[in-house]
Amino acid sequence: MKRFILVIGLLLLVAAGCGSDDISLEVENDPYYKEGEPTEIVLEAVDDSGEAVTGLAITGELEMEKMDHGTITVSFDDNGDGTYAGEVLLPMGGEWIMSATVEKDGKEKEQIVRFQVSEG
Ligand SMILES: [Cu+2]
């Protein structure tokens, strides 16, 4: 019986390992809005174990939480250290929602990232 439990445990470990291409994005800088100037957004990508993930292609569709400004597209450049930087001209600061498309090895995943843009 103990051996059986051990085998199940090992299988679960393997399964968890396979699921480790789950990537989560977070805004790691403090984006600010200044009229007529692009806002920089820096994303950090980490996997399940908190390791930085490089080599992703990330684009985002930005929308405001409480207002309709349409959607604004921003593409991110891989900084090579698990962070990705993008610049975008926003109409205003406030609460923004990004629907991010993350591509890794030809596979795409969607992720929602919420962040605050301060007015500078
Ligand atoms: Cu607005």
Automatic annotation (TrEMBL):
Alphabetically ordered keywords of this record: Signal
Position of the signal peptide: 1-20
Highest taxon listed in the record's lineage: Bacteria
Keyword Chloroplast: no
InterPro entries xref list: Ig-like_fold, YtkA-like_dom
Residues annotated as domain YtkA-like: 20-99
Aminoacyl-tRNA synthetase listed as a keyword: no
Protein name stated in the entry: YtkA-like domain-containing protein
Species of the source: Compostibacillus humi
Taxonomic lineage from the root: Bacteria, Bacillati, Bacillota, Bacilli, Bacillales
